[in-house]
């Protein structure tokens, strides 16, 4: 018996229909019923695709208007009390209130916000879903949290699938991962203590689903791929021993990471089937196949759910046959994880050339791979011969393409001297040389790079891309923006200026478009959170830099001012992390290739007289492997890649790096090992708490180089008072010696408008001046 299924499917729609409908609904242009209709239509369309591919069951429960974890908060009736819901509001209203927050206003008939209390409530916190770029809404738990089942929405979706007609497999996050991914809102509260209250709600649900005719329920427990404390392992045992009472087939799903020491546990839990990620942990597959009792189903996640390459069907079939053999002829075949993390389809993408397009598979193409695998495993190979041959040809084309491998890149990598990642001198000597050259005041002020991306800038870029604005005219327009930004910074009295990044659409795409080895899709959208989608570049080949990428803009900006102009680059790890990356060589090698391209740019900027160069690495933390045992190796190559990019320069050239959204305290020595002369970080929202680690609190590691802790939040138009920033700076100066401190906002200002930007920066510069007068 061979079965195929998917753990989940993209829900945003091939043309981002859900995004469009959501945003229209939030603007009040369409009502809830019309939004619901779009949702229903998308579900039906996506189930049909699954049926056409011959999946045995379609995934139900993976659809969400914002986030699948937020769905569970409503499903199990644990909406945080702080939202002040009365229960009179429509569920969808409450849902969006949790997802997006509510503002203070008089509530009443038709205000639509979902809340009833006057003050407004902040949205649920959002955080990254494991090591993906998807963000989920964080459930909030405390001692008073209760659970009660509200299954209407889910049951309606089940009914919709049955009516299609299709056999539904309901897919939900399991109880232990649900608690794990939530946040304890009370000091010292152990959210695991809620398990016994939560389980009955799951039991009720499973019973209801059984009564509806649902015979398989997939419960995701991706935390099995993490280093779990014994209490959480025990909780998994307890939870599934409890759920066993219910007459329902449970498929326990794990993904993203090796099971490692949880492997035996995963194989022992009393469920009807186990799904494992054979892409992220291929080395564990045979062990699982042998350990898992033969009366359980084994679902092999072998089509990559996290990347966009066409599968090697020959190799995949060989592996599956081996596993089937061990399993007495029975096996389920699936994508490694939910297909939420790949674009809907790439088969007809208008921006890709034929060659590259032929190497790629989006969700729809991955469904087709499952169809082919099933046929071939059935012994019905004749019907898929052509498909298998095509896949083989695509693979060969990718292996042999002269666009993938470039001799010069390989040679350069091989010849890289071991000290290519070292600056000439250590930081103390560099610091002296830089002070001599830059002559900055104490508490130097700067910004993180971008200035407001005004509608005019966007329109000019769009016209240039369409071809309706000539190259020269576009350049003049951008130069005018640069000049404008420089004049304003001078007027504000900032010390280290930036050119403002007017010419950049996106900090990764801008560089990817100019480097060899990248391709761009027209429609390869992946959901990031809510209605927000990203379109990651496809890094398919050896990376090199044909010509300088930023030197003209930067030297132009420098020519306008006597103050130091900071060159602005995106770092190798961020480019790697925010792209779909090739799977035919280690990520470390790809990172090093990107690093060398950035290194060339750094050298050229220095050669053109630029004295300060910032290499942004906001994504270095998110690349951290889920398993602790894999972290040292990652940090080693990631920080080396950064240093390779940053190190071709003389002592007197100052290298900055910038990171945001990061909790770094656990990797501070590694961040320091990047050896940037100055690091700017986001700290204002944590009230400088994040900085404590940098100061070596409690005898810990002390960050040795200079630091610019962000003194104001750039996510809102609010203009903080001078005193507010002064207070934060004083707090920073308690943990970091004053001579090490810089003054800057949390992050780039591209999403802001000029009025609030100028007002806030004025206060920021004044705050620095007050401090200077004191020393
Ligand atoms: N230099 C970039 C900017 O200012 C940095 C953005 C980021 O860290 N995400 O926009
Ligand atoms: Zn940032």
From TrEMBL:
Binding positions (L-methionine): 448-450, 501, 616
Keyword tags: Amino-acid biosynthesis, Metal-binding, Methionine biosynthesis, Methyltransferase, Repeat, Transferase, Zinc
Signal peptide (UniProt feature, chain positions): none
GO molecular function terms attached to this record: 5-methyltetrahydropteroyltriglutamate-homocysteine S-methyltransferase activity; zinc ion binding
Residues in coiled coil: none
List of residues binding L-homocysteine: 448-450, 501, 616
Keyword rRNA-binding set for record: no
Record has Amino-acid biosynthesis as a keyword: yes
UniProt-annotated binding residues for 5-methyltetrahydropteroyltri-L-glutamate: 16-19, 128, 133, 532-533, 578, 622
Cofactor-binding details, from the entry: Binds 2 Zn(2+) ions per subunit.
Catalytic activity: 5-methyltetrahydropteroyltri-L-glutamate + L-homocysteine = tetrahydropteroyltri-L-glutamate + L-methionine
Stretches assigned to the Cobalamin-independent methionine synthase MetE N-terminal domain: 4-325
Residues reported to bind Zn(2+) 1: 660, 682, 747
Residues binding Zn(2+) 2: 658
Cobalamin-independent methionine synthase MetE C-terminal/archaeal domain ranges (all copies): 443-769
A Pfam family annotated for this UniProt entry: Meth_synt_2
Residues at the active site: 715 (proton donor)
Gene3D superfamilies: 3.20.20.210
Pathway per the UniProt entry: Amino-acid biosynthesis; L-methionine biosynthesis via de novo pathway; L-methionine from L-homocysteine (MetE route): step 1/1
Enzyme Commission number(s) from the entry: 2.1.1.14
Cofactors that this protein relies on: Zn(2+)
BP GO annotations: methionine biosynthetic process; methylation
Main function: Catalyzes the transfer of a methyl group from 5-methyltetrahydrofolate to homocysteine resulting in methionine formation.
UniProt family annotation: Belongs to the vitamin-B12 independent methionine synthase family.
Official protein name in the record: 5-methyltetrahydropteroyltriglutamate--homocysteine methyltransferase
Organism expressing this protein natively: Roseateles aquatilis
């Amino acid at each position: 018996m061979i079965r195929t299924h998917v753990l989940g499917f993209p829900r945003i729609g091939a043309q981002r229909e859900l995004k469009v409908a959501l945003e229209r609904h939030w603007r009040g242009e369409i009502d809830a019923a019309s939004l619901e209709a779009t949702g229903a239509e998308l579900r039906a369309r996506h189930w049909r695709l699954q049926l056409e591919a011959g999946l045995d069951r379609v995934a139900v429960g993976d659809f969400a208007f914002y986030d699948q974890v937020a769905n569970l908060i409503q499903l199990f009736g644990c909406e945080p009390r702080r939202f002040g819901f009365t229960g009179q509001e429509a569920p969808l209203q409450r849902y969006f209130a949790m997802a997006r927050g509510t503002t203070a206003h008089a509530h009443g008939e038709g205000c639509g916000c979902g809340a009833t209390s006057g003050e407004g409530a902040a949205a649920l916190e959002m955080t990254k879903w494991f090591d993906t770029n998807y963000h989920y809404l964080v459930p909030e738990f405390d001692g008073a949290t209760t659970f009660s089942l509200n299954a209407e929405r889910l049951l309606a979706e089940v009914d919709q699938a049955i009516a299609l007609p299709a056999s539904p497999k309901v897919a939900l996050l399991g109880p232990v991962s649900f608690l794990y991914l939530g946040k304890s809102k009370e000091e010292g509260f152990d959210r695991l203590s809620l398990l016994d209250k939560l389980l009955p709600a799951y039991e009720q649900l499973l019973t209801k689903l059984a009564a509806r005719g649902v015979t398989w329920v997939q419960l995701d427990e991706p935390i099995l791929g993490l280093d779990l404390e014994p209490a959480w392992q025990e909780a998994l045992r307890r939870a599934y021993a409890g759920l066993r009472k219910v007459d329902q087939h449970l498929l326990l799903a794990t993904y993203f990471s090796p099971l490692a020491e949880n492997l035996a546990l995963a194989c022992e839990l009393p469920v009807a089937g186990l799904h494992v990620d054979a892409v992220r942990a291929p080395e564990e597959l045979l062990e699982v196949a042998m350990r898992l009792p033969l009366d359980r189903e084994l679902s092999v996640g072998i089509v990559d759910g996290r990347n966009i390459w066409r599968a090697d069907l020959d190799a995949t079939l060989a592996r599956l046959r081996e596993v089937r053999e061990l399993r007495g002829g029975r096996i389920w075949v699936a994508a490694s994880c939910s297909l939420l993390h790949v674009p809907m389809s790439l088969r007809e993408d208008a921006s890709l050339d034929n060659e590259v397009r032929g190497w790629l598979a989006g969700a729809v193409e991955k469904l087709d791979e499952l169809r082919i695998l099933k046929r071939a495993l059935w012994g019905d190979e004749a019907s898929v011969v052509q498909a298998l041959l095509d896949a083989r040809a695509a693979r060969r084309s990718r292996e042999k393409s002269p666009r993938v491998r470039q001799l010069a890149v390989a040679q350069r990598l091989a010849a890289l001297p071991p000290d290519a990642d070292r600056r000439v001198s250590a930081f103390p000597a560099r610091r002296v040389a830089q002070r001599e050259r830059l002559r900055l005041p104490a508490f130097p002020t700067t910004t993180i790079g971008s200035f407001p991306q005004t509608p005019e800038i966007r329109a000019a870029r769009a016209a240039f891309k369409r071809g309706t604005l000539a190259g020269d005219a576009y350049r003049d327009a951008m130069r005018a923006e640069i000049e404008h930004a420089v004049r304003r910074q001078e007027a504000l009295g900032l010390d280290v200026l930036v050119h403002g990044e007017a010419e950049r659409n996106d900090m990764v795409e801008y560089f990817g478009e100019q480097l060899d080895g990248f391709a761009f899709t027209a429609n390869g959208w992946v959901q990031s959170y809510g209605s927000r989608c990203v379109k990651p570049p496809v890094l398919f080949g050896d990376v090199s830099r044909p010509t300088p990428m930023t030197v003209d803009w930067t030297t132009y900006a420098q020519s306008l001012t006597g103050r130091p102009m900071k060159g602005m680059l995106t770092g190798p790890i961020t480019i790697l992390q925010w792209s779909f990356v090739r799977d035919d060589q280690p990520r470390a090698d790809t990172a090093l290739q990107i690093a060398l391209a950035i290194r060339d740019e750094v050298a050229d900027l220095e050669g053109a007289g630029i004295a300060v160069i910032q290499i942004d690495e906001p994504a270095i933390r998110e690349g951290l492997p889920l398993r602790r045992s894999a972290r040292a190796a990652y940090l080693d190559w990631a920080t080396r890649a950064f240093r390779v990019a940053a190190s071709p320069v003389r002592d007197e050239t100052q290298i900055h790096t910038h990171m945001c959204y990061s909790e770094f305290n656990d990797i501070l020595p590694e961040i320091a090992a990047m050896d940037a002369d100055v690091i700017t970080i986001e700290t204002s929202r944590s009230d400088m708490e994040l900085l404590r680690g940098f100061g070596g609190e409690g005898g810990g590691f002390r960050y040795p180089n200079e630091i610019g802790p962000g003194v104001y939040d750039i996510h809102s138009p609010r203009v903080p008072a001078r005193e507010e920033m002064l207070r934060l700076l004083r707090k920073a100066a308690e943990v970091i010696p004053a001579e090490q401190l810089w003054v800057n906002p949390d992050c780039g200002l591209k999403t802001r408008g000029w009025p609030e930007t100028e007002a806030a920066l004025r206060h920021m510069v004044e705050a620095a001046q007050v401090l200077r007068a004191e020393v």
